Amino acid sequence: MFVRTAGDRDLAAIRALLVETWHATYDAIYGPERVTAITDEWHSIASLKARLTKPNSEFLVADDGKRIGGVAFAESIEDGRTIGLKQLYVLPDLQGRGIGGMLLDEVIESFPEARGVRLEVEAQNTRAVAFYEANGFVRSSDAGEHAGASGQPTLVYRRALAG
After folding, report:
1. Which of 47, 80, 114, 123 has a CA positioned 20 to 30 A from the CA of residue 56?
2. Is the pTM of this model over 0.90?
3. 9-48, pLDDT tens digit by residue?
C-alpha cells in the first residue's frame, strides 16, 4: 500500500470503504439502520467531493494499485496549531497491517506547522481507542462535539508533535 491524495476518481471506492467499515464497526453499537442513515448522509459522494477542495485540509487514501484499503481526512484547526483528524478508516480485512499508521504519519507530515493532533472517537469503538493510544494519543478532558451511541459526547484524544 502507498498513501496518496484522494481524487475524484476515488470517491465511489472511498464511499464503499466507509460504508463497509462503518457497518463492521458500528452496527453493534448504533444498529444497522442508523449506520445506513449516517453513511448515506456523511459519506455521500457529494459530501466526500466537497472535501477534495476544502481549504487547509488533506484527504488521503491508501492504495495498492488494485483497491483502496484506507482513507484519512484532516484539517488545520486552532489557527494552524492543531491538526483536526476527522476520519481514519481501514477496511476490516486489512486492519492490523500498518495501513492506519501509514495514513496517520502522512496526515501529520501534511501539516508541518502543526504542534498537535486532535480527534474524537466513540467510546465504544475500543479498537480505535487502542490504536490511537498505541500511537501516542492521550485522552483529553475536552468534551467531544458529537454524541456517541450512549448519548454522551465522544472522547477527545490529543497528541503533541515535536517542533
Report:
1. 123
2. yes
3. 999 999 999 999 999 999 998 899 999 999 999 999 999 9
